[in-house]
# Entry
Amino acid sequence: MKKINGHILAFMSVFFWSVLYVSVKVLLEYLSPFELLILQFVFGYIMLFVIKPKFLKVRFKEELMFAIAGLCGISIYNLFLNLAMEQTYASNVSIIIAIAPLFTGIFAFLLKIEKPYKNFFIGFILCIIGISLLSFGDTDAIGINPFGDMLALVAAMGWGAYSVTIVGIMNKHYDIIIATRKMIFYGILFLIPAFFMFDFRPNWHIFLQPTIALNFIFIVFFASGFCFVLWNKATLLIGAVKTNIYVYLTPIITIIVAMLVLGERLGIYGIIGVVLTLFGVIIGEYRNTRKQVD
# Structure
């Protein structure tokens, strides 16, 4: 039953995060990437504090792990995600983020958590070719921006590092909501220097518009708080590798929603790029999913 619950939680978090790309795209018409990031996580932190107004005291080593998780999973991932969403298609971003499990593997190799294997490198090469086609193939497609795709690649690296870090934290069996809030706190803390690089002057009147308000509430409640709780709990129940498999569904869900809501499209090279990228991720993770032991 624990494993079934873990898979359900992983799917729920990925589903809401997939729809998030579309909501972010809508909100970036009215807010800068940095403004949106700060607002969503400050309100997300407040929401989680209201739900469970307690604090978690840990040793310095564990505190450092929370700080790294906040830096990678909140600051780097979400900042570069929002910057990428401003530059390129929501569909492109979701496809590139889908290779995050491969970066999880790279960090696992570097930290000697796992040994390298052939399928991983074959999958990684396919992903790079797929992303190149996605970014540079359809030159006549409106809105394609290779720079935005590279920003999404940095976001995927951040999520890969977060996925490795979160395993050690979740194995300590801390309260999920309090632990998640602690990571968000560090994520916000590491974003403070960005105030010297980006303007933060949100137009508060835009939240009087129902569309803006509903999309923002969705991002705060699900993407900035609830989904992290679901994801972290799923990682605890079924492990990081099996949880990350659900990232593969992100592009499929996002592309469908983006076509319906935003009218986005993919050219022939983009479609080939999608297939190669997803195929590369599946091949790269094949050995892991067979030999993973919970």
In short: Residues 139-143, 289-294 have pLDDT under 50 and may be disordered.
